[in-house]
UniProtKB/TrEMBL annotation, chain A:
<protein>
    <recommendedName>
        <fullName>ABC transporter</fullName>
    </recommendedName>
</protein>
<dbReference type="GO" id="GO:0055085">
    <property type="term" value="P:transmembrane transport"/>
</dbReference>
<dbReference type="GO" id="GO:0010043">
    <property type="term" value="P:response to zinc ion"/>
</dbReference>
<feature type="transmembrane region" description="Helical">
    <location>
        <begin position="233"/>
        <end position="252"/>
    </location>
</feature>
<feature type="transmembrane region" description="Helical">
    <location>
        <begin position="166"/>
        <end position="196"/>
    </location>
</feature>
<feature type="transmembrane region" description="Helical">
    <location>
        <begin position="44"/>
        <end position="72"/>
    </location>
</feature>
<feature type="transmembrane region" description="Helical">
    <location>
        <begin position="208"/>
        <end position="227"/>
    </location>
</feature>
<keyword id="KW-0812">Transmembrane</keyword>
<dbReference type="GO" id="GO:0043190">
    <property type="term" value="C:ATP-binding cassette (ABC) transporter complex"/>
</dbReference>
Automatic annotation (TrEMBL), chain B:
<keyword id="KW-0813">Transport</keyword>
<feature type="domain" description="ABC transporter">
    <location>
        <begin position="7"/>
        <end position="232"/>
    </location>
</feature>
<dbReference type="Pfam" id="PF00005">
    <property type="entry name" value="ABC_tran"/>
</dbReference>
<dbReference type="InterPro" id="IPR050153">
    <property type="entry name" value="Metal_Ion_Import_ABC"/>
</dbReference>
<dbReference type="InterPro" id="IPR003593">
    <property type="entry name" value="AAA+_ATPase"/>
</dbReference>
<keyword id="KW-0067">ATP-binding</keyword>
<keyword id="KW-0547">Nucleotide-binding</keyword>
<protein>
    <recommendedName>
        <fullName>ABC transporter domain-containing protein</fullName>
    </recommendedName>
</protein>
<dbReference type="GO" id="GO:0005524">
    <property type="term" value="F:ATP binding"/>
</dbReference>
Length: 256, 247
């Protein structure tokens, strides 16, 4: 098999696993759409990075970090979660991003382009994805207890604000990694869809995490192979594979 | 803090934005005592708990004894039926040792061998948190609070969400735990009967402190009017069990 394709699939599988794992918390926290909106912020970051001649991944990371700080701040400092505000702000950033991204790179930034992923990118992506796994594993209990009850978590000494911030930063990083494969319009789906599908089938929380990660891996790997051989953009291919798995999980759930 | 007290609260004031929720709260809790906090809906009872637990900002002083270990039993959890979190995984937030988990389950009456169904405890551990009955969830929450070997337990309205036949047993359970384990209990309630039966001290709240002391001495016509008087319907509803005490 083509070594380049193998590298792509391996890298993609790591991103899929990390997205699925992080996404399971996003679904539990009932903030799936925040994940989606967040992914749109990557676009202006990429555009600015292209204009400055630096690595688009870096631009996406910076833009996402700023957005994460914004989301976290709003979540901590308002009585009601300002979801509408998040929707307005992030669609605005998508619109601006589309205007400022140079035309040749626009399609790639929106839907992902496998041809642009080099060896260095691949290696960096694998390292970051592994880091995401390790950190998420470490905070997972505290994070989940905060989802169950913020008061209960705080009363057992968990700094929920701190844990939430780390979590959102990890989501920002995973979205930045996903952008290369599926583009800014669809990376949100990479975080959400595998986790939602896994929730249909999971018997326990640990089962849920494992399933979400596995479905993430399968979606990206199969999506990449399809994109390569049918010559379609990787973003839609990956997302549609995950959607197909979701439909399958839904059918299986209702049969039981 | 005076010796023999486990908690001392003075001049406590809580405001949300510019809204004063609690003001001028001052009380002590004796070690091994049972304090009931009563008041109508919106009186700030849960807010008082959250303030003394340090979960929200407040003015004034909240002083716990240095050796205090607080277990908190919240009123309810919003865990959807669709969330695949099992009871066992919930306990693992705090404790990995399955023997310790089995021990607290036994102390709340959910352990092995307490009924004819020998595997009840094991089965419960595999059950999702979101599908437990009100009574089971409450016991699981109490067991969770007991895992840290607390010497103070805070209960936010122990009976809410539990069917009538179950109500008696939750208070009986609290009473039993107290006798077994050297516990100080602070609970929120709106049922006067329970307060008379289980508490040695009562704190009446209605944004301000209306009364504090032994229930039979401080809960009188005047304090009840200050608590519930403005809304007779609420008063009747909330004191269903208390009428035959002759106030």
């Amino acid at each position: 098999m083509d070594i380049k394709l193998l590298l792509l699939i391996t890298t993609g599988a790591f991103v899929g696993a990390a997205s699925g794992y992080l996404g399971s918390f996003m679904v539990l926290k009932r903030m799936s759409l925040v994940g989606d909106a967040l992914s749109h912020v990557a676009l202006p970051g990429i555009a600015i990075a292209l204009a400055l001649g630096i690595d688009p991944l870096l631009g996406a990371l910076v833009a996402l970090t700023l957005a994460v700080i914004g989301i976290w701040y709003l979540g901590e400092h308002s009585e009601i979660y300002p979801e509408a505000l998040v929707g307005v702000f992030f669609t605005a950033s998508l619109a601006i991003g589309i205007l400022v991204t140079p035309e040749p790179e626009l399609l790639e930034a929106l839907f992902g382009d496998l041809e642009r992923i080099g060896y260095w990118d691949g290696l960096l992506t694998i390292v970051l994805a592994m880091l995401i796994f390790v950190v998420t594993r470490r905070i997972s209990r505290r994070l989940l207890l905060g989802v169950v009850s913020e008061d209960l978590a705080s009363s057992t000494g968990v700094n929920t604000s701190h844990v939430n911030f780390i979590y959102l930063l990890l989501v920002g990083v995973v979205v930045a990694l996903g952008v290369k494969f599926v583009g800014t319009l669809l990376t949100g789906a990479l975080v959400i869809v595998p986790a939602v599908a896994a929730k249909n089938l999971a018997k326990s929380i640990n089962h849920f995490y494992v399933l979400a990660s596995l479905i993430g891996v399968v979606s990206v790997a199969v999506g990449i192979v399809i994109a390569k051989f049918v010559s379609v953009p990787s973003g839609p291919a990956v997302v549609l594979v995950s959607i197909a798995i979701f439909i399958l999980s839904y059918v299986l759930k209702n049969r039981n | 803090m005076t010796e023999g007290n486990i908690l001392s609260v003075s001049n406590l004031k809580v405001t949300f934005n510019t809204h004063v929720i609690l003001d001028g709260i001052r009380f002590d809790v004796r070690r091994d005592g049972t304090l009931a906090v009563i008041g109508p809906n919106g009186a700030g009872k849960t807010v008082l708990f959250r303030a003394i637990l340090g979960l929200i900002p407040y003015e004034g002083t909240v002083e716990w004894a240095p050796d205090v270990r607080v277990g908190y039993v919240p009123q309810k959890l919003y865990v959807g039926k669709d969330i695949p979190l099992t009871v066992s995984e919930f306990f693992q937030f705090k404790e990995n040792d399955s023997r310790k988990i089995a021990a607290v389950l036994t102390s709340v009456g959910l352990g092995e061998g307490e009924s004819k169904d020998f595997h009840r405890g094991q089965r419960l551990l595999r059950t999702r948190l979101g599908v437990l009955s009100g009574g089971e969830l409450q016991r699981v929450l109490i067991a969770f609070a007991l895992l840290g070997k607390p010497n103070v337990l805070l209960f936010d309205e122990p009976t809410s969400g539990v069917d009538i036949s179950g109500e008696e047993t939750v208070y009986a359970l609290i009473d039993k735990l107290k006798k077994e384990k050297d516990l100080t209990i602070i609970f929120i309630s709106h049922e006067l009967e329970v307060v008379y039966n289980y508490a040695d001290t009562v704190l009446c709240l209605n944004k301000e402190q209306v009364c504090f002391g032994p229930p039979k001495q401080v809960v009188d016509k005047e304090s009840l009017e200050a608590l519930y008087g403005e809304n007779v319907q609420v008063y009747r509803h909330q004191n269903q069990g208390g009428h035959h005490h002759g106030h």
